[in-house]
From TrEMBL:
Keywords, comma-separated and alphabetical: Metal-binding, Oxidoreductase
GO MF term set: malate dehydrogenase (decarboxylating) (NAD+) activity; metal ion binding; NAD binding
Name of the protein described by the UniProt record: Malic enzyme
Domain Malic enzyme NAD-binding, residue spans: 298-543
Domain Malic enzyme N-terminal: 108-288
Species name: Gossypium mustelinum (Cotton)
CC cofactor note: Divalent metal cations. Prefers magnesium or manganese.
One GO CC term, this protein: mitochondrion
Protein family according to the UniProt entry: Belongs to the malic enzymes family.
Residues the record marks as active site: 131 (proton donor), 202 (proton acceptor)
Cofactor or coenzyme needed: Mn(2+); Mg(2+)
SMART domains reported for this sequence: malic, Malic_M
Coiled-coil region: none
Length: 543
């Protein structure tokens, strides 16, 4: 009996392997009637054929005509495109972006199959709507836009209850969680519970770009209060109207949530997103050896920036071995800036075997200017990157960005400050004089308003020969003689879906620095010499 079972099982699994690539497997559902139409995971709207309407108790609950998936798709795209036609002036841009987000969001709430199909097929056009920059606008207006909840909300008031709450989530399995406490949403500051838009957008990218199962993802908001007074005073604010928890109280709340998640889904991967710097570093240190997690703003960003920096050396006509000789000024000593610096330094150490050389070529500024060893009360995470003041003649603690660019003459200016317009005309013109044959500008802060400069400004003031990348998307710039100034989107979206998918498929227990370094190098390696020569550092979003 045993061997017969084994024989049948082996036959079945072989035929299953053959057929699974050809025939879609049936989806067995317990629900019937209206419950199906209200479940976006299985709803097909008017697409249910008559046989299914009979079997599932849907007859009479839908208009009689069956509208095929393809017709529904075309109808959706037509309404979406008609919104574009209504844009008459620049000032309409954010209204139109929000209108586009609304119709995508309604589709998401109604019919996930169609939603993800249109998203995957039109990722280049739709990413700026469901993700950066429009998602920032959505978070800022969340209370007004809220119609239906998505994901889970745990709050400081739920202490002691989280273990049972986690079982309220309807899916049996969860592979990927994106978690935020809303304390630093893009460059928009503390948005409290409104920050849930970010985990939702990130997980949409996981499905669209990495093919994760949309029924096994979970966006989570951990609402520990907000220090944004405007929100606390708003009677319609949907989150806790109290100051943020601090210290042990804060950490024990996160601990309780993590314990609940890992009890129900021990293999779930957790991406920490948009935590203010102190908690971003603290939670990474606390959990990274204990379960499969990473901090996207520190580690994902670093990988994408490193790939861009490696591409830049090539674009300057130098060999990759020359990377350690690049002078790089990083503006912003927060979770993202420090993450980039530590990964870039690690890369140099790997190339040269010398930690001293590694630290020499990088210069770090925060809101108080250049950071040197003379700086008082420096955040411990920034200490390894503090400069020796005597390194370059006249370089002093607190030097302004303009002074630093003039004295250091960098090859790369990389902004993660969250301050729009920081790379002003004077700074960009000083970079032009740096002597680098092809200076690079990474204006990585999000959303668009917070970019350190626009693409047009960069090509205008720093010269047509630059390499340009920004965190939020900009159009390519038309230069003289019919030439094009290429705009790269240096955004962690190029890595986090792959990091999560890789961790999931490999069954990794933790995510190591070496894995992230490998991911960055892999991203850099996709680019051909022809792309790089044009100043293209990353694959197209469609790819
Ligand atoms: N492109 C991407 O993939 C990506 C990834 C992560 C973060 N970001 C963006 O980077 C920005 C910063 O994120 P973070 O998590 O590091 O924030 P953070 O608050 O931790 O750090 C901001 C840093 O900028 C410094 N700063 C502020 N004003 C400055 C000024 N005038 N001059 C120089 N430095 C100044 C602050 O002192 C601080 O060190 C945000 O806008 C975020 O959207 C982009
Ligand atoms: O969300 C993004 O677009 C990138 C990054 O994670 C950020 O915080 O800005
Ligand atoms: Mg982020």
């Amino acid at each position: 009996m045993w061997s017969l079972t084994k024989f049948v099982a082996s036959r079945l699994s072989r035929s299953r392997r053959f057929f699974s690539s050809v025939i879609p497997r049936p989806c067995i559902i317990q629900k019937r009637g209206a419950d199906i139409l209200h479940d976006p995971w299985i709803n097909k709207d008017t697409g249910f054929p008559l046989t299914e309407r009979n079997r599932l108790g849907l007859r009479g609950l839908l208009p009689p005509r069956v509208i095929s998936f393809e017709q529904q798709y075309a109808r959706f795209m037509e309404s979406y495109r008609s919104l574009e036609k209504n844009t008459v002036s620049e000032s309409d841009t954010s209204h139109v972006a929000l209108a586009k987000w609304r119709i995508l969001n309604r589709l998401h709430d109604r019919n996930e199959t169609l939603y993800f199909r249109v998203l995957i097929d039109n990722i280049k056009d739709f990413a700026p709507i469901i993700y950066t920059p429009t998602v920032g606008l959505v978070c800022q207006n969340y209370s007004g836009l809220f119609r239906r909840p998505r994901g889970m909300y745990f709050s400081a008031k739920d202490k002691g209850e989280m273990m049972s709450m986690i079982y309220n989530w309807p899916a049996q399995m969860v592979d990927m969680i994106v978690l935020t406490d809303g304390s630093r949403i893009l460059g928009l500051g503390d948005l409290g519970v409104h920050g849930i838009g970010i985990p939702i957008g990130k997980l949409d990218m996981y499905v669209a770009a990495a093919g994760l199962n949309p029924q096994r993802i979970l966006p989570v908001m951990l609402d520990v209060g907000t220090n944004n007074l405007k929100l606390i005073e708003d009677p319609l604010y949907l989150g806790l109207r109290q100051p943020r928890l601090e210290g042990e109280e804060y950490l024990s709340t996160i601990d309780e949530f993590i314990e609940a998640v890992l009890t129900r889904w021990p293999k779930a991967i957790v991406q920490f997103e948009d935590f203010q710097m102190k908690w971003a570093f603290e939670t990474l240190k606390r959990y990274r050896e204990r379960f499969c997690m990473f901090n996207d703003d520190i580690q994902g960003t670093a990988g994408v920036a490193l790939a861009g920096l490696l591409g830049t050396v090539r674009a300057q006509g130098r060999s990759l071995d020359d990377f350690p000789n690049q002078k790089i000024v990083v503006v912003g000593a927060g979770s993202a800036g420090l993450g980039v610096l530590s990964m870039a330094v690690q890369a140099v150490v790997r190339m040269t075997g010398n930690a001293e050389t590694a630290a020499q070529k990088f210069f770090l500024l925060d809101k108080d200017g250049l950071i040197t060893k003379e700086r008082k009360n420096l955040d411990p995470a920034a200490v390894p990157f503090a400069k020796d003041p005597g390194l370059i003649a006249g370089l002093r603690d607190g030097d302004s960005l303009l002074e630093v660019v003039k004295k250091v003459k960098p090859d790369v200016l990389l902004g993660l400050s969250g301050v729009g317009g920081l790379f002003n005309e004077e700074v960009l013109k000083a970079l032009r004089e740096s002597g680098s044959n092809r200076p690079a500008i990474f204006a990585m802060s999000n959303p668009t308003m917070n970019a350190e400069c626009t693409a047009v400004e960069a090509f205008k003031h720093a010269g047509e020969n630059i390499v340009f990348a920004s965190g939020s998307p900009f159009e390519n710039v038309q230069l003289g003689n019919g030439k094009v100034g290429y705009v790269n989107q240096a955004n962690n979206m190029y890595l986090f879906p792959g990091i999560g998918l890789g961790a999931l498929l490999s069954g990794a227990c933790i995510i190591t620095d070496d894995m992230l370094q490998a991911a960055a190098e892999c991203l850099a390696s996709y680019m051909t010499d022809q792309d790089i020569e044009k100043g293209i550092l990353y694959p197209s979003i469609n790819r």
